[in-house]
Design a protein that fits this description.
Layout (H helix, E strand, L loop, with lengths): L3 H14 L6 H4 L1 H13 L1 H13 L8 H21 L4 H17 L9 H12 L7 H12 L13 H16 L4 H14 L3 H18 L6 H28 L9
Length: about 260
Amino acid sequence: METVYTRIRTIAREIVSRFPAPDFYKEEADAIASSRKLMQQSRHISDLRTIVTKHLEDDFGHGLQHAVKVSLEAGSLALIEGQRMPLSDLTIARQVLLVQCAGLLHDIRRKKKNHAIKGAEFTKKLLQDFPLSSREVGDICLAIQNHEAFKNKIEIDSARGKLISDCLYDADKFRWGPDNFTDTLWEMVSFLNPPLKTFIAHYPKGMKGLERIKQTFRTQAGQRYGPQFIDIGLAIGEELYRVIREEFVQPPAGSY
């Protein structure tokens, strides 16, 4: 049976379809394609994806689809930023591998309290069997600990470690744009199943959270493209909110 949230989700996705894609996807298409190619060619990423599929706690729209998208775009950012640093092609490719690992694993303990810390602890144990140095595993774990918004950021003393951390954060926060209204929000609703009245009451606060994220992007590319992701998300959210209030909120009895 179709629920009210199913209908609202359909409307939200239709609204999203009318907005242009963020510039990142056109202007950095080569980096995205290269990240995808490296991901597809890596046996380690393939093995890790299989493990993640078994262990990822899929809720709040942070399941495998989210993890893969973050992994892909974090790798793209690492390519862009690595060339700016500059690093050798071989070193950049290694950084892409590491940040893709972090992307796949960053929400592996999503349902746990302090999930970023718990995820880093799980990751440290898991990656012991992978051909990574202790420093590389440490960089991945620090990136996972650092991926939450509005939390104290752990300072990282190496340029390569900081690259992994910042690229993961920015790719994860790109999802606060249009993706929030195609998938993430509805996964949260499905999990929590709040009364519509509660959902509507909390909606403006959620929109303020989106606005706040605009100033938190960390890489140069993230700072360039991230605010547009959020602005598109805000425009979508505002239009959706108007529709919800007009079509799904019952007027008080006796009103005209």
